[in-house]
Amino acid sequence: MMEKVIEVSHLTKEYKNLKAIDDLSFNVYQGEILGLLGPNGCGKSTTINSILSLLKYQEGFIKVFGKEMKPDSYDLKAKIGVIFQEVAVFDELNVYDNINYFCGLYIRDKKQRKQYVDDAINLVGLNDFKKFLPKQLSGGLLRRLNIACGIAHKPKLIFLDEPTVAVDPQSRNHILDGIKKLRDQGATIVYTTHYMEEVTDVDYVFVMEKGKVVLEGEPRSVFSNIDTLKKLRLDVPVAANLAHKLKDEGVNLEGDIIDDHELIAAIEKLIR
């Protein structure tokens, strides 16, 4: 049986008259990518901040690696990497020195730290930019640097909060490929986004609205609820949306289609 890395039970967080999180319960298992999907303001970031004990909450409990998460749980936090939506790097340090600094907060051995920094640079594809200052980087490269700083110490649990907002397609692909590589290396990942096409390859998806989970399951199962997803103002992947429309028109496409390759294969099979 897979180990529970995160346990959230009956979590409730209120701001005056607003319930940002409403009786939320879920588990995340070792080696899994969990996609938290939902429109802006649905409670994704509040959930992460509550798990990290950066916010106080009114009800419920949270365990990470089997222990209660508290503001002073430094032993747990050393095993965690966090990449927030806002880029947080030092303007006066170049790419290499930024990553080396953040890695050094956890890894004291210089030889080991050098290897870890090199690994992080390779993962996010910044080998050609080691000596660049942050102000010399494009928005996409800057986000890659932000991710490298957060994962360089090889954390066992990684939170990525909207990591691809306003990035170019090349950087987005680098980031998404890097997330899968981190999972393959044994990390457990919680990934928030409002771009549905970014969670087609995750292990499990929660769709949130007004602090509650309204849909959950494997991506293929969740994406079959096209009408519900549209009501939540989420960007349904073009292939899934087109397949849904074709089925409504009576075209007999097999299965729940979630990407371009599957749609093309289904149409080719149909016309043979």
Report on this structure.
The chain is an alpha/beta fold. It has one domain: P-loop containing nucleotide triphosphate hydrolases (Rossmann fold, 3-Layer(aba) Sandwich), CATH 3.40.50. The protein is built from 10 helices and 10 strands. The chain has helices at about 45-50, 75, 95-105, 110-125, 140-150, 170-185, 220-225, 225-230, 240-250, 260-270, and strands spanning about 5-15, 20-30, 35, 60-65, 65-70, 80-85, 155-160, 190-195, 205-210, 210-215. The strands form 2 sheets. It has a 6-stranded mixed beta sheet with strand order 6-7-8-3-9-10, sandwiched between helices. A 4-stranded antiparallel beta sheet has the order 2-1-4-5, covered by helices on one side. A hairpin with a 2-residue loop joins β9 and β10. The longest helix is centred in the middle third of the chain and has 16 residues, at about 170-185. The chain is globular and about 65 Å long.
